[in-house]
Design a protein that fits this description.
Layout lengths: L1 H17 L19 E5 L8 E8 L7 E7 L5 E3 L2 H4 L3 E9 L5 E7 L2 E8 L2 E7 L9
């Protein structure tokens, strides 16, 4: 009987909290109605490097620049950036190919729109505005 009452309490708590999901999208800019913000897409067919190291920051604020992620062959090809950078108007990105001299093709997207394509075989860095438009090609 005691076990049954614990299950009833658990079920009641689950029902109460299931309606409490944060659906507030007030922080999402109108220019990105899907609420995706910045993401990075690695073009797997064109990328010959085994690993791509990615650094992120807010453009014009070097103190925010930091290592973010190491992408390896076989990892998901589209990755949303961390919340702290997701909706900034202008982002700084740096990529490094490992091993060097092996091509990397990646696209920086804001929402569903490609803002910048980066192609490099050693290292490249860019400042990209969310309004920028580019072609990805992968």
């Amino acid at each position: 009987m005691q076990r049954l009452s614990r299950l009833a309490v658990l079920a009641a708590v689950t029902l109460v909290y299931s309606g409490c999901e944060n659906k507030d999208k007030s922080h999402v800019p109108q220019s990105d109605p899907a609420g995706k913000g910045w993401s990075v897409k690695v073009c797997p067919n064109e990328t010959k490097a085994d690993t791509v190291e990615i650094w992120l920051g807010i453009a014009g604020k070097p103190e925010t620049q930091r290592f973010w992620k190491k992408w390896n062959v076989g990892d998901p090809v589209e990755i949303q950036v961390p919340e702290e950078f997701r909706y900034v108007p202008e982002i700084w990105i740096k990529g490094t190919a490992t091993p060097e001299n092996r091509n990397v093709h990646l696209c920086l997207k804001y929402g569903d729109q490609v803002a910048q394509k980066m192609t490099f075989d050693k290292q490249e860095e860019k400042k990209v505005k969310k309004e920028d438009k580019g072609e990805c090609g992968c």
